[in-house]
Amino acid sequence: QVGGHAVHIGHHDMGRPEHRVEEAHRQLDFFVEAGGTFVDTAELYPVPPAADVIGRTETYIGTWLAAKPERRKQIVLASKVAGPRAEGWLRANRKPELKHKADDGSFNTAVTPEQINEAIEGSLARLQTDYLDLYQIHWPERYVSLFGNSIFTPSVGGHALVPDKKDFASIE
């Protein structure tokens, strides 16, 4: 515990070309041996996301879990669905049968029941587990102030990929 909060590890950069799977496994081992229990990842990691590395962070964590299945019971595992994004390669990475759409710029991601199911199935496969302890939406389907914009400006409106919605209930 640090300041009353449990320590967790977030792997947003694990899986970049300069990070090898063996190093990822050593980092995870060190984390658990030091008492860490909360492992946080996302379908779009590592960052910055790119077609050639997308999902690799989950894959590295999955091979680490598969090497010693008892590890799964030692950690709280969280992942995230990406949310609205224009790149076809992100959604195409969720299922082998979608790979042919990777270069289709109109094959957008969104927070819909269908796409949440696609994303979680892809994450479970890469993580080599049959359950997650926490699943979150990485990017909402509405305007948010991001990356240094500290002031929320409601007049900016919605996300370019999201139709104007009066009701933001994506899941019923």
Structure, explained:
- With 172 residues, the chain is α/β, with parallel strands linked by helices.
- The chain is 26% helix and 9% strand.
- It has helices spanning 21-33, 56-67, 88-92, 113-127; strands spanning 8-10, 38-40, 76-81, 134-137.
- A 4-stranded parallel beta sheet has the order 1-2-3-4, with helices on one face.
- Strand 2 (38-40), helix 2 (56-67) and strand 3 form a beta-alpha-beta unit.
- The longest helix has 15 residues, at 113-127.
- It starts with 7 loop residues before the first strand and ends in a 35-residue tail after the last strand.
- Residues 1-5 have low confidence and may be disordered.
Outline the low-pLDDT stretches: 1-5
Q: Classify the helix fraction into a percent range.
A: 25-40%
N- and C-termini, Cα separation: 38 Å
Would you report the number of β strands? 4
Overall average residue pLDDT:
83
Largest sheet, in brief, is: 4 strands, parallel
CA-atom Rg in angstroms: 17 Å
Strand content: 5-15%
Number of helices: 4
Say what oligomer this is. Answer: single chain
Taken in chain order, the helices and strands follow as: EHEHEHHE
Strand pairing plus helix content: what structural class? alpha/beta
Shape call: globular
Q: In order across it, which strands form the biggest sheet?
A: 1-2-3-4
